[in-house]
Amino acid sequence: MGLDVVSRYWCVSTRGNEITEAMIQVWKENFFFHALDNGCISGGLFGDEDTIIAVSVWPDIETMNAVLDSDAYEQLSLPIIASWGTGGINIPDDVYLVVNSLLQEEFIPDLRNMKALLTMSDPDLQSRRILPNYEVYIEDDPNWQNRNDWV
User: Fold this and answer.
1) What is the DSSP-derived secondary structure letter of residue 34?
2) Paired residues of 7 in beta bridges
3) Would you say residue 142 lies in a domain?
4) Residue 10 pLDDT greater than 60, yes or no
5) Preceding omega of 92 cis (within 30 degrees of 0)
6) How far is CA 74 from CA 81, 85, 144, in A?
7) Residue 1 placed within a domain
8) 3 state SS of 145
9) Residue 150: CB partners within 8 Å, gap ≥ 6?
10) How far is CA 92 from CA 40, 75, 82, 84, in A?
Protein backbone atom coordinates (compact mmCIF):
# COMPACT_ATOMS: atom_id res chain seq x y z
CA MET A 1 0.00 0.00 0.00
CA GLY A 2 1.23 3.47 -0.83
CA LEU A 3 0.94 6.81 0.85
CA ASP A 4 -2.47 7.42 -0.68
CA VAL A 5 -4.10 5.13 1.92
CA VAL A 6 -6.49 7.29 3.93
CA SER A 7 -7.49 6.80 7.55
CA ARG A 8 -10.63 8.34 9.04
CA TYR A 9 -11.04 8.93 12.76
CA TRP A 10 -14.48 9.77 14.07
CA CYS A 11 -14.24 10.85 17.73
CA VAL A 12 -17.33 10.98 19.91
CA SER A 13 -17.69 12.08 23.53
CA THR A 14 -19.49 9.51 25.66
CA ARG A 15 -20.35 12.20 28.24
CA GLY A 16 -19.79 9.45 30.80
CA ASN A 17 -22.24 7.04 29.18
CA GLU A 18 -21.21 3.45 28.62
CA ILE A 19 -21.16 2.05 25.11
CA THR A 20 -23.07 -1.22 25.10
CA GLU A 21 -22.66 -4.37 23.04
CA ALA A 22 -25.91 -3.48 21.28
CA MET A 23 -24.50 -0.09 20.24
CA ILE A 24 -21.32 -1.74 18.95
CA GLN A 25 -23.38 -4.30 17.03
CA VAL A 26 -25.52 -1.59 15.40
CA TRP A 27 -22.39 0.31 14.29
CA LYS A 28 -20.83 -2.89 12.95
CA GLU A 29 -23.92 -4.13 11.10
CA ASN A 30 -24.78 -0.77 9.58
CA PHE A 31 -21.71 1.36 8.94
CA PHE A 32 -18.81 -1.07 9.16
CA PHE A 33 -20.23 -3.97 7.11
CA HIS A 34 -21.32 -1.48 4.44
CA ALA A 35 -17.90 0.19 4.45
CA LEU A 36 -16.04 -3.13 4.19
CA ASP A 37 -18.30 -4.27 1.38
CA ASN A 38 -17.60 -1.04 -0.52
CA GLY A 39 -13.83 -0.65 -0.35
CA CYS A 40 -12.85 -0.03 3.28
CA ILE A 41 -9.64 -1.95 4.00
CA SER A 42 -9.76 -2.19 7.79
CA GLY A 43 -10.81 -0.42 10.94
CA GLY A 44 -12.31 -0.80 14.36
CA LEU A 45 -14.10 0.82 17.25
CA PHE A 46 -12.17 1.90 20.33
CA GLY A 47 -13.25 3.52 23.56
CA ASP A 48 -12.57 4.54 27.10
CA GLU A 49 -14.72 6.27 29.72
CA ASP A 50 -14.66 9.57 27.80
CA THR A 51 -14.36 8.84 24.09
CA ILE A 52 -15.32 6.46 21.33
CA ILE A 53 -13.10 6.46 18.24
CA ALA A 54 -14.32 4.81 15.07
CA VAL A 55 -11.43 4.11 12.72
CA SER A 56 -11.73 3.20 9.07
CA VAL A 57 -8.93 2.80 6.55
CA TRP A 58 -9.52 3.32 2.84
CA PRO A 59 -7.39 2.70 -0.25
CA ASP A 60 -7.94 6.31 -1.37
CA ILE A 61 -10.05 9.39 -0.67
CA GLU A 62 -12.32 8.78 -3.67
CA THR A 63 -13.41 5.36 -2.40
CA MET A 64 -14.05 6.75 1.08
CA ASN A 65 -16.04 9.72 -0.21
CA ALA A 66 -18.11 7.53 -2.53
CA VAL A 67 -19.31 5.58 0.53
CA LEU A 68 -19.71 8.54 2.89
CA ASP A 69 -21.58 10.63 0.32
CA SER A 70 -23.96 7.84 -0.69
CA ASP A 71 -27.69 7.65 0.00
CA ALA A 72 -27.12 4.19 1.51
CA TYR A 73 -24.70 5.64 4.08
CA GLU A 74 -27.24 8.28 5.06
CA GLN A 75 -29.89 5.59 5.62
CA LEU A 76 -27.51 3.27 7.47
CA SER A 77 -26.61 6.05 9.91
CA LEU A 78 -30.19 6.28 11.22
CA PRO A 79 -30.12 3.06 13.31
CA ILE A 80 -26.73 4.09 14.73
CA ILE A 81 -28.02 7.53 15.71
CA ALA A 82 -31.09 5.94 17.33
CA SER A 83 -29.17 3.23 19.20
CA TRP A 84 -26.43 5.50 20.48
CA GLY A 85 -29.01 8.16 21.38
CA THR A 86 -30.86 5.62 23.54
CA GLY A 87 -27.54 5.10 25.33
CA GLY A 88 -27.14 8.83 25.96
CA ILE A 89 -24.67 9.52 23.14
CA ASN A 90 -26.15 12.05 20.76
CA ILE A 91 -25.03 12.11 17.15
CA PRO A 92 -24.06 14.62 15.79
CA ASP A 93 -23.91 16.77 18.95
CA ASP A 94 -21.34 14.58 20.74
CA VAL A 95 -19.05 14.21 17.71
CA TYR A 96 -16.13 16.47 18.52
CA LEU A 97 -13.57 15.54 15.90
CA VAL A 98 -13.55 13.94 12.46
CA VAL A 99 -10.14 13.60 10.83
CA ASN A 100 -9.11 12.18 7.49
CA SER A 101 -5.40 11.78 6.97
CA LEU A 102 -2.75 9.92 5.10
CA LEU A 103 -1.87 6.83 7.06
CA GLN A 104 1.34 8.06 8.61
CA GLU A 105 2.42 7.26 12.15
CA GLU A 106 2.47 10.83 13.45
CA PHE A 107 -1.23 11.27 12.64
CA ILE A 108 -2.50 8.06 14.21
CA PRO A 109 -4.20 8.60 17.59
CA ASP A 110 -2.66 6.59 20.43
CA LEU A 111 -5.25 3.86 20.95
CA ARG A 112 -3.12 1.72 23.27
CA ASN A 113 -4.88 2.85 26.46
CA MET A 114 -8.33 2.40 25.01
CA LYS A 115 -10.40 -0.76 25.06
CA ALA A 116 -10.82 -2.38 21.64
CA LEU A 117 -14.58 -2.57 21.23
CA LEU A 118 -14.57 -4.05 17.74
CA THR A 119 -11.61 -5.04 15.59
CA MET A 120 -11.05 -6.93 12.38
CA SER A 121 -10.45 -10.09 14.46
CA ASP A 122 -14.20 -10.19 15.19
CA PRO A 123 -15.54 -13.47 13.68
CA ASP A 124 -18.33 -11.60 11.86
CA LEU A 125 -15.71 -9.63 9.94
CA GLN A 126 -13.47 -12.50 8.83
CA SER A 127 -15.33 -13.10 5.56
CA ARG A 128 -15.20 -9.38 4.74
CA ARG A 129 -11.44 -9.01 5.01
CA ILE A 130 -9.89 -7.70 1.83
CA LEU A 131 -6.29 -8.23 2.82
CA PRO A 132 -5.95 -11.60 4.59
CA ASN A 133 -2.91 -10.67 6.67
CA TYR A 134 -3.96 -7.09 7.49
CA GLU A 135 -5.10 -7.21 11.10
CA VAL A 136 -5.80 -5.11 14.13
CA TYR A 137 -3.53 -6.62 16.77
CA ILE A 138 -4.93 -5.05 19.90
CA GLU A 139 -6.71 -8.04 21.42
CA ASP A 140 -4.64 -10.96 20.21
CA ASP A 141 -1.01 -9.89 20.37
CA PRO A 142 0.51 -8.88 23.73
CA ASN A 143 3.31 -7.19 21.81
CA TRP A 144 0.96 -5.15 19.56
CA GLN A 145 2.35 -1.76 20.65
CA ASN A 146 5.64 -2.59 18.96
CA ARG A 147 4.15 -3.65 15.61
CA ASN A 148 4.45 -1.51 12.52
CA ASP A 149 1.63 -3.15 10.57
CA TRP A 150 -1.44 -2.39 12.69
CA VAL A 151 -4.28 -0.09 11.83
Assistant:
1) H
2) 57, 101
3) yes
4) yes
5) yes
6) 11, 16, 34
7) no
8) helix
9) 135, 136, 137, 138, 144
10) 22, 15, 11, 11
Apex 139 CA angle, 18 and 59, nearest 5: 95
When divided into structural domains, the chain yields a total of: 1
- Tell me whether residue 51 is in a domain: yes
Residue 98 sits in a domain whose CATH number is 3.30.70.100
- pLDDT at residue number 60: 87
Mean pLDDT of 94-111: 69
Residue 91's nearest CA partner among 21, 23, 25, 7 is 23
Number of neighbouring beta carbons within 10 Å of residue 117: 20
Q: Which domain holds residue 120?
A: 6-146
Q: What is the pLDDT of residues 26-64, one digit of tens each?
A: 999 999 999 999 999 888 888 888 889 998 988 888 999
Q: Is residue 151 a part of any domain in this protein?
A: no
| Cα end-to-end distance, the chain, whole Å | 13
CB 67 within 8 A of CB 40: yes
